[in-house]
Amino acid sequence: MKFGSYVSFPFGAVIRLFPPKLRFKLIKSLLSALVVPMLNLITAAAVVLLVLSLQKSSLQDCHLCFLLYYPGNNVNPVVVAVLILAVSTLARHMTEWFFLSQSRSMVQEISKILFLRLTDKYLSIPWLEFARRGRAQCMKNCTITSDQASHSFAVLLDLFRNTASMLLLTMGIFIQAPLLGLGILVMVSGALLLIRWLLKPKLLAASTEQNEKIENLHKCLAHTFDASREVRVYKSKQALLEPLQSNLMHLARARVNLATLPNISWMLFDGGITLLICAAVLGSVAFNDPGKQVTLLANLGMMIVIGGALVPSVNNFLSGIARLPELSVSIDIITRELDSPDHDAMWQKVVVDLQTRPRLLQLKDVSFAYPDHPPIFQGANLDVYCGDRIALLGPSGSGKSTLLMLAAGLTSPSSGRIYIQECDAVAYVPQETVLLDDTILANILFGLDLVDEADIWSVLANVHLDSLVRHLPHGIATVTGDNGVRLSGGQRQRLGIARALYRKPRLLLLDEATSALDSQTEAKVMDAIIRSTDIGAVVFVTHRMKAAEKASSFFNIQHGKLNQVADGGCAA
Ligand SMILES: Nc1ncnc2c1ncn2[C@@H]1O[C@H](COP(=O)(O)OP(=O)(O)O)[C@@H](O)[C@H]1O
Ligand SMILES: [Mg+2]
């Protein structure tokens, strides 16, 4: 059986997650992790040598002392011991510091890389997949889970250092007192078995519960804060706090288990070793063998010296092993998320068209159903040519937003084909505009570079926001607040449209993008959009007759069918 499955840890996944550019940091960490236990052993040998030399005892029985000193040469063993002790202690502390700084900076780098890779992934997976997970879960995975997963590297490196330390020091004890060395190995194996059979399932369950509850807490907090105005008005604070309390209670229980259970293995080891030493002392007293008692006492003395370094190594080794099941849950989540398939191009390039007006978008026999839901529409056909101004009408829930999402390439049809002429030239304004907590300018640029400020003012004029922005204390540098909280609903919507217009799209898709405007402003904004020569074609969803009237053609979705209608008369 592989060690990974023995302790329930996906070592293969960890290796795959490791960023290759950090391999030199890893090598430096591993090397310093090996040097520390060697220096520990040298320090312990120097202490034993010093004590025995000061007592003027014979060094013949001290096999460990032979690592540093051969009796019979002219150098004073006390001087040798003191010098080695001083140098090795200093070197050990410096190496330990080097190990910590290398390994911890590596872990921080990994955490940063995982955070960015995961965020990038969530922006690349199909939109419906993102919607299924939900914002809160994605945020939790990008922050807490990626942090926990990167922390696995610190735990693994510590484990490597402690394993090396434990083995080397046990070897030192083995040289001096083979039975004691063997006893330590037996006890460590016993503690490992305990972790495998007793603790692993409990730790895995606690870690899964911890992850689940943190996810729930994020979800609860997200919707509670999103609805904070309604919560105040409807006085529903208590009802929304209750699930938080129950989640926190379960989370606390899982965390207590994760913090306490790993200690059981150490307690078993510690108790076992103490019993072993007591049995050895009692045995030697019972047999009344003075020779054996002297050796035992010498060995006990050495145990105290080496034990000073061995005890923390074994303790950290066992608690590191016991933490692996907990960390494996985060590693599994991160690898699963990073392995999930990206959003494929939903569109295909439009068929070469010899007509004078180029076809920008074509929906051919498109049917769509949300996963595990009945179809929204079937066999939909739509041709959008340059210059078209199409109003998409239909009752609420008929599938207008879904159709625009398909046209925007956010999701793929269940059957049929969607052809697009230039996928980089599509702009889409959803029903709810989301603004960045940034300046008006940044909200319009939305990642593009500013070439000419006049273009910004031109799109602001098209959406009738120019005079408002001009009167703001910081103009286009005014910060809009969390999701545009400092703007009205209509102003937010118009900023969303300005963002789309700034891109001079070949195809502009507007999903009830002017629903929060008064009819006069809506008419002006729609006029500017319809007349704009910078835009190839516009497809817009509206429930307002006045806005619909501006279209050049009308399509209606009802009962799962998309039909062209003569005029906007069915807009209601
Ligand atoms: N993510 C989703 N999962 C399942 N059903 C959905 C999802 N989004 C929308 N729907 C359903 O699809 C139907 C069409 O929705 P939508 O396109 O938003 O309608 P419209 O924009 O015409 O009001 C509705 O019945 C709605 O309940
Ligand atoms: Mg809609």
List the main descriptive attributes of the protein structure presented here.
Rossmann fold; elongated; 10% strand; binds adenosine-5'-diphosphate; 572 residues; four-stranded mixed sheet; 2 domains; alpha/beta; ABC transporter transmembrane region fold; 62% helix; binds magnesium ion; six-stranded mixed sheet; 18 helices
Fold topology:
Blueprint: H1 3-6, H2 11-17, H3 23-54, H4 77-122, H5 127-133, H6 135-176, H7 178-226, H8 228-234, H9 237-260, H10 262-287, H11 290-339, E1 348-349, E2 359-369, E3 375-385, E4 389-393, H12 400-407, E5 415-420, E6 426-429, H13 440-445, H14 453-462, H15 466-471, H16 489-502, E7 507-511, H17 519-531, E8 537-541, H18 545-548, E9 553-558, E10 561-565
Parallel strand pairs: 1-5, 4-8, 4-9, 6-7, 7-8
Antiparallel strand pairs: 2-3, 2-5, 9-10
Helix pairs in contact: 3-4, 3-6, 3-11, 4-6, 6-7, 6-11, 7-9, 7-10, 7-11, 10-11, 14-16
The structure holds adenosine-5'-diphosphate and magnesium ion.
Adenosine-5'-diphosphate binds at residues 131, 370, 373, 376, 394, 396-402.
